[in-house]
Amino acid sequence: MGTLSLEDFVDDQPWGDDLPLLEDIPSENPMPGVRIQRLVTRGDKRGELTVLMSALLEPIAPPPHVYQVSAEAGSIRAWVYHKRQFDRLAYTNGDLRAVLYDLREDSPTYEKLEILDVGAANKILLTIPPYVVHGIQNRGKSTATFINMPTAVYDPKHPDKSRIPFDHPGVPYKFE
Ligand SMILES: Cc1cn([C@H]2C[C@H](O)[C@@H](COP(=O)(O)OP(=O)(O)O[C@H]3O[C@@H](C)C(=O)[C@@H](O)[C@H]3O)O2)c(=O)[nH]c1=O
User: Fold this and answer.
1) Domain segments of the chain as ranges
2) How large is the ipTM?
3) Is the C or the N end of the chain the one with fewer CB within 10 Å?
4) pLDDT tens per residue across span 97-110
5) CA angle 80, 30, 134 (to 5 degrees)
6) Which atom of ligand 1 is nearest to the CA of 161?
């Protein structure tokens, strides 16, 4: 028998500082279904840990599909919407700009534009409901990554994504 056994390990003690795991960021006249939550990072000399989503706080629709996007400096991914899925986008690094445009004709915020600068300086989980048009640009000088934890799987045979070009004149926002 070796000199080490499982019993040699010490269980982690409960921890609890006063930092929340996630907190809603209030926005003026929010688009229905859009949610902006501040991500909380805990760190020590080894590095950092940021919870991206957790059922610890409230019931969540478990993400059946999670992916990471790597965005080159200056790159633009726009304009898209989904018919069925909610996007749940975690932005934790880089200097990114997420732009939302509400084209839901029955929405109280119809034709509202919302611009969010996110990433290292503003770590957030952004929930985007179906039919809210969105785009993202990496405005930084280096590659940035972000995570999407949508509420539905990506089906290559029936992608749930509808697009127009990023410079379509119908959207009242111009990526620089
Ligand atoms: C969404 C998705 C795409 N792909 C493939 C398809 C394609 O070859 C490549 C890039 O896919 P897309 O062109 O759909 O990815 P892209 O248009 O870059 O999608 C991105 O758009 C921005 C606006 C977002 O909000 C992101 O969440 C992400 O959906 O990756 C997967 O393999 N799995 C996936 O889950």
Assistant:
1) 21-43+63-154
2) 0.93
3) N
4) 999 999 999 999 99
5) 10
6) 14
Residue holding tokens 């809603």? 24
Instruction: Calculate how far, in angstroms, residue 120's C-alpha sits from the geometric centre of ligand 1.
Output: 22
Q: Which CATH number fits domain 21-43+63-154: 2.60.120.10, 2.60.40.650, 2.40.240.50, 3.40.50.970?
A: 2.60.120.10
Calpha distance 89→116 (Å, rounded): 12
pLDDT < 50 positions in the chain: none
Query: For 8, phi and psi rounded to 5 degrees?
Result: -75, -15
